Amino acid sequence: MTATEAAEVAGLSPSATSYHLRALARYGLVEEAPSRGDARERVWRSTVHSWQVDSGASDDPETQAAEGALVDAYLAREVERIRDWRARAGDEPAEWSSAALMSESVLLLSADELKSFNDEVLRLIEPYKRRHRIAAPPEGARTVVVTYKAVPLD
Fold first, then answer.
1. Neighbours of 7 (CB within 10 A)
2. What is the Cα–Cα distance from 147 to 77, expressed in whole angstroms?
3. Which DSSP string corresponds to 51-116?
């Protein structure tokens, strides 16, 4: 997206957003994307294809606050995406409605088992990530979000 498009999402001015995009680029979090035809417009794209937070791992209060804000934003976006899906699920082709899944399982694991379980789930997801398939997606492929959380309840 352009700085102007990002500004609309962020609620900032295009010049402020442009400044922040250049700062993110210095740290490798975004990069310039190919132009959409108008060489005057500067298009940016994320270089981050997935992320994870070791929430609560830091003793630094500022880091914990930043982690908390990031997780809160992630959870809000997740709820928005699910509600959006539910609102349009009835209009989706049957093959997509039957393929979509929301599931929760309560497991009984040791910390070592949870680490192994997480590694296995991430290994299963990796080959399907958009960045690996964007050049030659299977026919009928759509972008699908898979969210995964594994946290102790007690």
1. 19
2. 11
3. ----TT----HHHHHHHHHHHHHHHHHHHHHHHHHHHHGGGS-HHHHHH-----------HHHHHH
Q: What is the pTM of this model?
A: 0.67
- pLDDT at position 34: 84
List the one residue out of 39, 45, 34 whose CA is nearest residue 5. 45
- CA 150 vs. chain centroid, Å, equals 16
Going by their DSSP bridges, the two strands 30-32 and 44-46 should be labelled as antiparallel
C-alpha 32/C-alpha 103 separation (Å) is 37
CA 80 to chain centre: 13
Low-confidence residues of the chain: pLDDT under 50: none
**Residue among 96, 106, 103 at smallest CA distance from 142:** 96
- Looking at residue 137, its amino acid is P
Please name every residue paired with 31 in a beta bridge, in sequence order, or none if there are none: 45
φ, ψ for residue 32, nearest 5 deg: -70, 140
